[in-house]
Write a structure and sequence with these properties.
alpha+beta; seven-stranded mixed sheet; six-stranded mixed sheet; 7 helices; 19 strands; Metallo-B-lactamas; Metallo-beta-lactamase domain-containing protein
């Protein structure tokens, strides 16, 4: 359905034309000063502006996106797990060339998204590879294009494969989720975080915000709960939402010290 409307600012694809974008009107995003603008995949592809970008980001992790970045600009991560390839988060741009490149890497068995800002064209991805999309039910209201491929899950964790676990931290959005891969970093463990855990310039720490563009802090009880939930898990690396936004070492302690620092500041 390449003619369906897409918000230029955030990349959300909607099931039908509309005048507003709820994602952008929410205080965790924004409507640009130039106003609400719309496009669609047919128009984007025909422009010739975007091309596929596939680059290694770490052991067994392949970045999937476009040049230049599209909409918000996040890149997806292809996880080459023992249980099969899995796609984490979603690049808004998709065309036949990008699909072919992902197929050459072995395709995918499923998709999970960290939070609504990255739902974008996920249904297009699901249809291209005939796979399910796992979204937390606490964020169901933000789904722009309902589809049978979307599988809502509830609770604190979901094992989407024997070696891949979704963890609902509730940071940024109620359904804000990270992916824990014990086999990542050559067996030392990795967390794929989108911007639920924001990889920041000081790689000894992560950020946990309610709104990143509008600088609204996350609630202390949510930060505390997120740190407590991740404490039992072993992971060396954290992979954020952007190209090369990676904490390579001491990721577990980066989360714990970040929460401790934040809570000390707001107490």
């Amino acid at each position: 359905m390449s003619e369906l409307p897409i918000c230029v600012a955030c990349g959300m694809q909607y099931a039908e034309p509309r005048s507003d974008c709820p994602i952008c009107e929410d205080e965790r995003q924004y409507v640009p000063r130039t106003g609400q603008q719309w496009t669609d995949l047919n128009t984007v592809r025909a422009s010739g502006t975007y091309t596929a970008r596939i680059e290694e980001q770490g052991p067994g992790l392949i970045g999937v996106g476009s040049t230049p970045n599209f909409a918000i600009g996040e890149r997806a991560l292809l996880v080459k797990a023992g249980s099969g390839n899995f796609l984490w988060d979603c690049a808004g741009f998709i065309d036949d060339d990008l699909v072919a490149k992902v197929r050459e890497l072995g395709g995918i068995t499923g998709i999970a998204i960290s939070h609504p800002h990255y739902y974008t064209t996920v249904v297009e991805w699901a249809h291209a590879f005939d796979v399910p999309v796992y979204l937390h039910e606490d964020d169901r209201q933000w789904i722009g294009r309902p589809d049978p491929a979307i599988k809502l899950w509830s609770g604190a964790t979901l094992d989407v494969a024997p070696d891949l676990r979704l963890i609902n931290l509730g940071v940024h959005f109620a359904g804000g989720t990270v992916l824990h891969w014990p086999g990542g970093e050559d067996g030392r463990g990795a967390v794929l975080s989108g911007d639920i855990l924001q990889v920041i310039p000081d790689r000894r720490f992560v950020g946990m915000m309610y709104s990143y563009p509008n600088l609204i802090p996350e609630r202390p009880e949510i930060v505390r709960r997120a740190a407590e939930m991740l404490e039992p898990y072993e992971f060396e690396a954290i992979y954020g939402a952007w190209w090369d936004a990676i904490i390579r070492t001491d990721g577990h302690e980066a989360v714990q010290r970040s929460a401790k620092r934040y809570l000390a500041q707001v107490s």
